[in-house]
Amino acid sequence: MTPILSIEGLSKHYGAVVALDGVTFSVNPGEIFGFMGHNGAGKTTALRVLLGLTPPTSGRVTVMGLDPTQDPLGVRSQLGFLPASYALPREMTARSFLCYVGAMFSMPRAEAEARAEALITELGLSSFADRRLGGLSTGMAQKVGFAQALVNRPKLLLLDEPTSGLDPLGRHDLLESLRQLAETQGTTTMFSSHILSDVQTLCRRVAILHKGRLVAFGEAEALKAEHGVADMDALYLALARRERR
Amino acid sequence: MSPAASAVTAAVSNAVTNPALWWMELGRRLGERKSKGLAALYLGALLAAPKLLEKPPPHLLAAAQSWFGGDDPFALFMYVWTDLAMNKLAVVTGIALGAGVLVEERADRSLVLSLSKPITPAGLYALRTGSAVAVAAGLYLITQLAGLGLFAAQIDGFRPGAFWLSGMVHVWAPIFATTLSALCAVAIGRQLGAALVSVLVLFSLVGGAFLGVYNPAWAGALAFNPFTQAVAGVTHLGDQSFATLAPPVVGLLVLNLVLVAVGARLARRVEP
Amino acid sequence: MTPIPWTYVRAELRREPLAFMGLSAGLFGAVSILATCWAVPRLPESVLTLLSLSLAVEGLPALVLVNTLLAVWFVAYFVGAVVVIRAIAAPRAENGLDLLLVKPVPPEVFVWSRILPAFGLCAAVGLGLSLTQVIGMWGLFDDQLSAAGALGAGLTTVAVAIAQLGALTALTARSTELAGALGLAIAVFMAVLTPTSVFIYRPDLFPVDGLGRALFVAPTSLILHSELIAWAWPIVMLVGVGVGALGLAWAARRVVVG
Fold this sequence. Notes:
- The complex is a heterotrimer.
- Chain A contains nine helices and nine strands.
- By secondary structure, chain A is an alpha/beta fold.
- The two termini of chain B are 27 Å apart.
């Protein structure tokens, strides 16, 4: 199977700081892939390289057959991204914002409006779709953030800590949406998180970063068996302790 | 083609091929509180200007007539309208709309969402600056249009043609203030720093807009001031010909394109 | 009474790059003032007469001073205004103010510690520019306007700027957007300048002389009363700082949004 996303020997340095150090892994089409690591492990930097927002210091990255360094707009036009830390434009409504994002993907106005309406219905945004984004709760804002990542019907979703800040119900809804997207539309998701129970619920294969280095990659079950642990928390702790030694 | 020229070309081509985005961007801009605040300021200027000139002191009337030609109160009105009202509003408009381009979004963490879409930082800069310029020019021209109707009944000797023509040149003042403030934003990287530099530079330039009229010996040396060029419709009130008004307009058009191109080039280094 | 956390206060006072901001803005202001001192005497006689009639002042030194005072006031106010906005409105706009306000620092101490550098910067830049205008005008002073009068007038505009910064602090204490705070900064400046601008075109709206004109037509009145201002400016400065302090007290009540 040709991977939808592959990273080979990816390094990224910010001056003397090494954010990523020779990271190699790949993501298959249609899967929900867990991308784990502690805060500052390099997950967000890796996602920025995949989006072509920052160039790698060395290594090779391919996203849907494209090199994000060479063709960042081509990559971004086919994927959806939800950053870990962001703000929505305060003075727009969810509806006008989703239309606007549609226009950023070169959709004609009518198509953008129809797409916004569909997402509002599918993701349950109707009750606050016409309220100013500046006045929404964290959970509502996160739903709008998730919706904007889906406007272009992406083949690949890059989600950076999408469940942090959500209440249990919101988390459940979001994870369920991802599962449905994978099942019904074959959408691939790269799910970056340090909430390991979410990763365990959702992902069959995972990559784990620690201080910019890839410390594990493969089937979650196989990795757990290899390290003799029962869940993802224990797996992560075992790997982190091994790295510390 | 240079990278800056490419960025402008890409933005222009995006405008042609993606009008929906530009319309929505314009709608977004118009919905901002600062656009509404500016509209209120322009309305205030429309209502206040005739009151200011109800009883002009004779020395001022005589001076305006000697500077700008003619022997009617219209010359003084044009001077006051342009220097006291529209020049100052041009600066406020430019800083309000331009000084936050990209850096405001980076500060409030919404830039990362925009740049994860298929648009380059230079393209986003051109889009944001373009919409700011459109709102600045739109507010100005709507005010001029409203002035045509309002002032005709209130100002002695009001000449609609001359009023409109000088407005068509002076509309480049808020456009320049906006493109310069936007350039300061990406060059300095912080909204407040950009605003401070813009305030100091733009108010200084505005202060010197009519210096060449006060002392014709300095007119040549002061011609570099974009605000001096923008008030050409007033300084040539007695001779508003194509030959006198076209050069300032062309000069200001080129200057603004250069400012946007340089800004787009600097915007390439902006990371969310 | 809660004890004042002096360590925190000292940390706040060192937070801003005041020297860089002050030197940059001061240099810009000094060049503007020296250019004004050079240019105004070279204006044609008819323009000087017009300025004299419009601003109700007589003599070349007074005409130069009217213009340089505007530069002193403008630069001193706006460099302070940037620090004021960076102190409260900017962190609120970036969703970082709540982190600071939940610490065990009384709102009054928080506001004073953050705004005092703005007052200090405004005063330092204003003093430097007031001295610059005296140097720039050296040789122009006459029996109607002395160097001490010009310096006093400059420092009086600084007092006005400090009072305005206090008002700006209170007005922007709840600003959630930088653009809005910037708009308020310009509005506070224009609010004091506008009567003088109106005076040029509609002198009939103002009292012929006395307190009414002194209150509303600031640069003119400072020049007309420059001999008084030459020694009375410390009192005006105290009043300016007092008004600024009132603004900070009001800001401290507004900064914590319930």
